[in-house]
Amino acid sequence: MEEKTYFHRVNELTPTRFWINNVTQEEAKRALAEGACGCTQNPAYVWKMMQRESELPEIQQLIMRLRDQGVARDQILIAVQRELVGRIAKLFLPLYQQSQGRWGYVSIQGDPFHEDCDSIVKTGLFNREAGENLMIKIPVTEEGLKAIGILAAQGVPINATEVMSVRQAMDVGRVYTEATKHCVRKAPIYYSHITGILDEYLHTTVQETGVAITSDVLFQAGIAAAKKTYAMTRTQYPDVGFIGGGARGLQHFTEMVGAQACITINWKGTADQLIDQNPPVIERFAQPTPPAVLDELLEKLPDFRKSYCLHAIEPSEYETFGPVVLFRSSFESAWKQAQSLIDSLIG
Has this prediction a pTM greater than 0.85? Predict the structure, then answer.
């Protein structure tokens, strides 16, 4: 009997589910065939698609059509993003319908330069019009938490993103619980712990500061923070789902296996590599982080302490927390480049 491929075995043997990130329509179809249960797209998505020769001509036509329809210059990119992500959502819609809304969500996040509460809510409701399985992605900042409360109360599915600390995730649970306490039927909510970006940031910090810490200990930092965050939210807010994101290596999927969670990864360079390598499915997530590893990380890396200890960071710091800034800066750069291309087309 032919052995099932990696992600199908993960789905069959564990509670962990595979989501795909920033995909073309063709990659989305391949991911679905390999067992993907959902999809995340971020503000860099339009620019990523613009850089693909197979995608660019159609995007250019869409931009010109929106211009001719009278869409304001500063709204064209938002409309392009909704159209492109909406196409991916249609591919996941059968899964959403077959699972009665459990799976098949596609998340979309708006303009990274306008993340005040009112803008998030306005853009989120606009994006929801593109499909019933569109999930609104909201950064967990003070303004983002306000928007989460408003949209959750309206029954909007939410992916609370840019979570790099235990406290951010706990705040999501608190706000969601309060906002939906009178709701008969609550829309689902997840928070995305951006484990890979947290690791990238901490690795860069060590390189730049020369902190003496072994690579074996540093390797475990992001996963250790994810385990702590998962454990605390599962205990206090079991209705809030966990998404692991920002993968920078295969370990950001394989070390998460065993969690009742969704792990989102890129197709190229991560999902395709796991399919090709076809590693054994081993539940690693429940394995505790050794105390000596935690002691060294907490002692030597202040930003790890902020990510790991509940009261080591204040909500006013979320937006300026180093790994959050790193993650958001990539979105801002891509958004600027996409807007520049639009400006050059429409004159």
Answer: yes
